[in-house]
Amino acid sequence: MNAPPLAQHVRALVALAVVTVVSGASFVLFKASVLAQQPFAVGESTWFIAAHNLLPRFWLGVVGLVAIYGGAALRLTRTEWTQAAFMAVTSFAGCMFQTDGLQYTTAATTGFLTQFYVILVPLWWALAHRKRPTVTVLLAGLLVLAGVAVLARVDWHTFRIGRGEAEVLVSTIFFSLLLCSLNWPAFAANRAERTSTIMFLLEGGLFAVVSVVTCRDPVHLFQPYTSPSWLALVVLATVFGTVTPFVVMNHWQRFIPTTEAALMYSFSPVVAALSEVGLPAVLSRWVGIDYANQPLSLTLLVGGGLILSANALIQFWPQEK
What we know:
Strand content: under 5%
Structural class: mainly alpha
Shape: globular
Distance between the termini: 27 Å
Helix content: over 70%
Radius of gyration: 19 Å
Order of helices and strands: HHHHHHHHHHHH
Number of domains: 1
Largest sheet: none
């Protein structure tokens, strides 16, 4: 028996709120797993490290979902295959740029800059429906751009931003397309556990190809797996930062408007910033990496505050649903 719309809406909000907290803290795990891998990839490019770091997380996700749902997780309809393939490509591109950028900036800054997709989602909506963006979206866009400029420490003399910040912003283009696809009517009947399983499988394959193509020394493909601490970080990142968020989002986001979901996700970087105040030192002692705690700087507070204000503006002064 289906739950009433209001009850279903509340359940969706609670589920997405929990996953927002979990995924926010995972930014620190992502950064820690990259730092733990670097000694096993001396001389390799950051693209290799990004792809090789992401590969086991997605294939472990496949193993976990098949263990939970059995062989049914691999039996998809044509529409489910279409959605899984689209999500795999957009998520692959987004994760690659985000993880490579994470090697050049902090977890908290990455978390806040990733929120740029909150503005892109309604812009995609306006483009798809051939309508002008609303005043709300334009005002929110200005707030986000101001927040991004603060966080990225834009040099106004040369109008350049750092590589890490630029790559994170590029990643948001792909993440916004991924989020939009979760609310497409054509995919409304798709089963989240099945589309997620094949998405992880395809995406893991793409990371495997990039890892092999960019690898300079084949031994680096296998060395990290001899490190128990790196494996532990990868498993934690898989559970809390990959499998749980994707499966929960794929199932529950369809029950609330996309802009409302985007607002909920906007609190993820707040959790990331708070986590980076104390968690890095704990992880450093545990796995033997050099990952210092990051203070809540004025730049982070001002830039992050502007982005959160833009997200709140979209929610409390909404555009057409």
